[in-house]
Structure formats: structure tokens, C-alpha cells
Amino acid sequence: AKEGYYDGIIFHRVIPEFMIQGGDPTGTGMGGQSIYGESFEDEFSDELYNLRGALSMANAGPNTNGSQFFIVQNSKIPYAKKELERGGWPTPIAAAYAENGGTPHLDRRHTVFGQLADDASFKVLD
């Protein structure tokens, strides 16, 4: 990013109430190379979740990360807090999903590496 890789790159995939995806220099969703020159492994954390506003790596399956990423836009989830708790999500995270939205079905499938942090960022997302 510091060298301008993402300058002028569009968000090529926008699915309302789900996510927006970018990071492909071809703009087609088929391109993009990692800074390592090849795909790199997933990096999951028990501290990071695909809550609304999360920045996550887009991939084509396990350990296929490149340059593409997405921002979670979903503001509603079809699961109740108790269902998420039964599914293994910690109580505070289940509550955050229920209150703010997100994509819990993508947890531990896509590496989360950031989170929108202020109202202005969420206004742009919406």
C-alpha cells in the first residue's frame, strides 16, 4: 500500500447488506498478487471477528490470500445471540453481532486485519 499498489483500484464487488470487495488491480476480481509474490496462509485470531466494519482478506479457499480484501457491510444477522453462543462464539462477541451486525459465518475462514473505527468511516461504508 505504501508503494501505491492500491491507488486507483476500484471496489469491483459490492453486495448490499453483505460486503464490498476490492484490491484487484485488474478490477475483475480475478487478479491481485500478495506482497510475497504468491498466496499466503490464513492468520486467524481469537480476538478478531467479522463484525460490521471489519476488514478481511478475500480468498479462494484456505491459505489462498493475495491482495484482495473486503469490508463487512451487513448490519443485520439471521442468528440470535443465544444461537451464536451455542455455536461457540464468546458472549460479548455474540452480543456485538446481534447489536451491530456482521458475517459470523466467515469467521475463521477469512483473516480479519482491521476494523472501521469512527462514524465517518461507517457513513462512507453505507
Largest sheet, strands/sense/barrel: 5 strands, antiparallel
Number of domains: 1
Strand order of the largest sheet: 1-2-4-3-5
Q: Specify the CATH class.
A: Mainly Beta
Protein name: Peptidyl-prolyl cis-trans isomerase
Catalytic activity: [protein]-peptidylproline (omega=180) = [protein]-peptidylproline (omega=0)
Function: PPIases accelerate the folding of proteins. It catalyzes the cis-trans isomerization of proline imidic peptide bonds in oligopeptides.
Family: Belongs to the cyclophilin-type PPIase family.
Task: Describe this structure as you would to a colleague.
InterPro entries: Cyclophilin-like_dom_sf, Cyclophilin-type_PPIase, Cyclophilin-type_PPIase_dom, Cyclophilin_A-like. Pfam families: Pro_isomerase. With 126 residues, the chain is α+β, with helices and mostly antiparallel strands. The protein has helices spanning 81-86, 91-100, 119-125, and strands spanning 11-15, 19-22, 54-57, 69-72, 112-115. It has one domain: Beta Barrel (Cyclophilin), CATH 2.40.100.10. Helices cover 18% and strands 17% of the residues. A hairpin with a 3-residue loop joins strand 1 and strand 2. It is globular and about 45 Å long. The model has no long low-confidence stretch (mean pLDDT 92).
